[in-house]
Design a protein that fits this description.
- With 482 residues, chain A is an alpha/beta fold.
- Chain A is built from 12 helices and 23 strands.
- Chain A has helices at residues 8-12, 35-44, 49-63, 104-112, 117-124, 142-148, 155-161, 163-169, 180-188, 429-437, 442-458, 463-477; strands at residues 26-28, 87-89, 127-132, 135-139, 151-154, 193-197, 207-211, 223-228, 233-241, 249-251, 254-259, 264-272, 284-294, 300-307, 312-315, 318-321, 327-336, 341-350, 356-366, 370-379, 387-397, 402-411, 417-426.
- In chain A, the strands form 3 sheets. In chain A, strands 5, 6, 8, 10, 11, 13, 15, 16, 18, 20 and 22 form an 11-stranded mixed sheet that branches. In chain A, strands 4-3-7-9-12-14-17-19-21-23 form a 10-stranded mixed sheet. In chain A, strands 1-2 form a two-stranded antiparallel ribbon.
- In chain A, strand 3 and strand 4 (135-139) form a beta hairpin.
- The longest helix of chain A has 17 residues, at 442-458.
- The relative contact order of chain B is 0.18.
- In chain B, the strands form 3 sheets. A 6-stranded mixed sheet of chain B has the order 6-9-10-3-11-12, sandwiched between helices. A 4-stranded antiparallel sheet of chain B has the order 2-1-4-5. A two-stranded antiparallel ribbon of chain B has the order 7-8.
- Chain B is built from 8 helices and 12 strands.
- Chain B is of the alpha/beta class and 250 residues long.
- The chains are: A alpha/beta (482), B alpha/beta (250).
- Chains A and B meet through helix 10 and helix 11 of A and strand 4, helix 2, strand 7, helix 3 and strand 8 of B.
């Protein structure tokens, strides 16, 4: 017809907003990986012997492993010798003690990302352990947390100040030999966050960390460990954006959560790594191992994730429900556009009696993307009274994308209840036209429809994150309707 | 207000509109009647800017502008409203949210300030009361789980909030019981004004018992076969459509 509807392609090809590079000299190791590199990382970080030994053991095991091939993702072989395994901003030599001391260029970078650190600190009451490349550069609200007895610091600081806690819990949820990427991370992890909430303490504020890859060809290998002791509770927020790059960047993080008796951990992620351009060039390879263990009775671990970025996402935040009456939750929105590949889901392992798990997964595919939900619900023989509810919905935008669902259910206890619901739908021309006819732009209409689809997950996010998540969706979804 | 000249359109390669001529002046209410499959719904969808229709000829002038040159959302902002025959469900998007976005998109296009949440609520609550709707409706998903009657009522409510210059109501009366029909008619009548036009697409006379049309058109085989005043509707009710078509062939 002679009139032209808003060109969806235009909206689709909107450039990645956070694609900029800060000009800061990096103190990096040359590319390559051997025991010398592992040792050098450990030495640079002045780590105790136990940790170096742990790293080396992981590295030796990694050498015997092969990259997993079961995921529905395709990428050229990764040359692990072409990657530099350590990079720290130069300015970290005399580490800033307050925000005023932080390199203004770093602050400007946060500014561009929409993270006004000082303002955020003052207004939102959020402690920010900001990881820039590999070294933490600013930590706020430390005192308030210290008063409550909460330890929230960079992983390096934890190794230095609380080695006994690190040694006690590190690798107890995700052992170094767990999988190829976890082993790699264990050998070369650079930094990350550490949280310890002592018994009976409710963490007085949301904890939030921003990760950002900045140095070219530097894989980032964070290690996060969160421990909530008996009756403690904590909510942790993680958000990522990365600058535009032509070369693929490897990201292999490990996150371990430990919840003891009656403890609660809520872990929320908004992930927006650079997804590559509209032709599928560049973008982050995100191979993450996230797992939480409800080690005590009535413990609860809840994962909420909004995954919009990365060329490849390989990620299965899981819960091991060991303690009787413990609860695991997984709420996920995964968006894949252009040539993105997302293979994500969760594992709920019911070991204790009367354990309960909930899975709500919303996958959105657009462009030529492939979006896979891969889930496992496993009920072991002793888990009498275990219950699981799973809901997996896929939304397709356009005709070139694909959605797969691989739910696996293994029940070895006759007393368990497992429910599964799944749906696949397409953003209807009808829905879109209805909104257009009311005067709403195509872009807003798609955002609205998608947000509606994701509502069950967004409502699990802390308020300020829910807003950020909505914004991210609108950036990554680009009104992708064919 | 609306002048359609020799409008032709295809759907999936099939010729559906075969030269439609229609003129609707400001302040008038027109009814378009006709058998199933005659192209009535296609006509209003084409006017509203639905994409999957291919215009093969003709022109449409709406309020001084070339309607066919505008994308759908601009037509809406310019004051064209389509009450859908089958309003679609949009799960998770609440009614109030969509309607506020729609109202503000229109106000923005007209250079007016956007209404804030407070103003919007008081506006919509008054209209809902007028339409006999429950307030819980505001927080429900757009048409989500609505009965047929609720969906139609919602269409009229949206129309009342958006105050279009030209309202096209596509079988808004179908599937309504008599009480719902009266409410819908009340909504439509409340919008009648000297600077506004309403086009009702309907199968039945019964809506016209409550909303009195200035002109009635019989639509068949992709064009308007006959036009007249409200008595034509009564005649159609009594004699059906066949006599018209036969007359044409003869």
């Amino acid at each position: 017809m002679s009139s032209k509807a808003p060109d969806v392609e235009d909206l689709l090809t909107r450039k990645y907003q956070h694609g900029f590079v800060t000009d800061i000299e990096s103190d990096s190791l040359p590319p390559g990986l051997d025991e010398g590199v592992v040792t050098a990382i450990s030495h640079r970080k002045r780590e105790p012997q136990f940790l170096l030994d742990w790293r080396l053991k992981a590295f030796r095991h990694w050498l015997t492993m092969r990259e997993p091939t079961w995921a529905t993702v395709h990428h050229p072989p990764i040359d692990y010798q072409a990657i530099s395994y350590y990079s720290a901003p130069r300015t970290s030599a005399d580490a800033p003690k307050s925000i005023e001391e932080v390199d203004p260029k770093l602050l400007a970078t946060y500014e561009k990302l929409g993270i006004p650190l000082h303002e955020r600190a003052r207004l939102a009451g959020v402690a920010v352990d900001a990881v820039f490349d590999s070294v933490s550069v600013a930590t706020t609200f430390k005192e308030k947390l210290a008063k409550a007895g909460v330890i929230f610091c960079s992983f390096s600081d934890a190794v230095r100040d609380h080695p006994e806690l690190v040694e006690r819990y590190l690798g107890t949820v995700v052992p170094p030999a767990d999988n190829f990427f976890a082993a790699l991370n264990s050998a070369v992890f650079s930094d990350g966050s550490f949280v310890y909430v002592p018994a009976g303490v409710r963490c007085p504020m949301e904890l939030s960390t921003y990760f950002r890859i900045n140095a070219a060809k530097t894989g980032q290998f964070e290690r996060t460990l969160i421990v909530a002791a008996e009756g403690a509770s904590v909510s942790y927020l993680e958000g990522c954006t990365a600058p535009m790059r032509d070369e693929n960047q490897l990201h292999a993080a490990v996150v371990e959560l430990v919840a003891l008796d009656d403890a609660k951990i809520k872990y929320s992620t908004v992930q927006n790594w650079y997804p590559g351009d509209e032709h599928g060039v560049g973008g982050i390879y995100n191979f993450v191992t996230k797992r939480g263990e409800c080690r005590g009775r009535n413990a609860k671990i809840s994962w909420t994730q909004v995954e919009t970025g990365s060329a490849i996402t390989w990620k299965y935040p899981s819960c091991v429900l060991k303690g009787d009456g413990s609860v695991g939750e997984f709420y996920s929105v995964a968006v894949a556009n252009n040539y993105q590949q997302a293979d994500t889901g969760t594992k709920m392992i019911h070991i204790g009696r009367d354990t309960k798990s909930t899975i709500v997964s919303k996958g959105i595919s657009a462009g030529h993307a492939v979006n896979t939900y891969r889930g496992l619900v496993k009920v072991l023989p002793n888990a009498s009274g275990a219950r699981n509810f799973t809901q997996c919905d896929s939304l397709l935008m356009g005709s070139q994308c694909a959605a797969h669902t691989f739910p696996t259910v293994e029940v070895r206890n006759p007393d368990a209840t497992v429910e599964h619901e799944a749906s696949t739908s397409r953003i209807g021309e009808d829905q879109l036209f209805y909104c257009l006819q009311r005067g709403v732009s195509a872009e807003d209409a798609v955002n609205m429809i998608v947000s509606g689809f994701c509502k069950a997950v967004f409502k699990e996010l802390p308020m300020e994150f829910a807003v950020e998540a909505q914004n991210l969706l609108s950036v990554s979804l680009e009104g992708a309707v064919g | 207000m609306l002048k359609i000249s020799q409008l032709r359109a295809n759907v999936a390669g099939r010729n559906i509109l075969k030269g439609v001529d229609l003129e609707v002046h400001a302040g008038e209410v027109h009814a378009i009647m006709g058998p199933n499959g005659s192209g009535k719904s296609t006509l209003v969808q084409v006017l509203a800017g639905r994409e999957d229709y291919e215009i093969t000829g003709g022109s449409v002038v709406f309020d001084g502008a070339d309607l066919l040159a505008m994308p759908a959302e601009q037509r809406a902002r310019h004051g064209l409203f389509l009450g859908f025959q089958y309003p679609v469900e949009i799960p998770g998007v609440n009614n109030a949210y969509l309607l506020k976005a729609a109202l503000n998109a229109k106000r923005k296009a007209a250079g007016l300030p956007e209404v804030d949440a407070y103003e919007f609520l008081s506006l919509i609550k008054a209209k809902m009361k007028f339409m006999g709707m429950d307030e819980s409706f505001l927080s429900r998903g757009v048409n989500e789980g609505f009965s047929g009657g609720e969906k139609k009522r919602n269409e009229i409510l949206q129309m009342l909030v958006l105050e279009p210059k030209l309202a096209l109501l596509d079988e808004t009366d179908s599937g309504l019981d008599i009480d719902a029909l009266k409410v819908v008619a009340k909504g439509v009548n409340s919008l009648r004004a000297a600077d506004r036009s309403i086009v009702l697409v309907t199968h039945y006379q019964r809506l016209l018992d409550y909303v009195e049309p200035d002109r009635v058109h019989v639509f068949a085989d992709g064009r308007i076969l006959k036009s007249g005043d409200k008595s034509l509707a009564l005649e159609l009710e009594a004699r059906g459509y066949d006599w018209l078509r036969e007359g044409r062939v003869a």
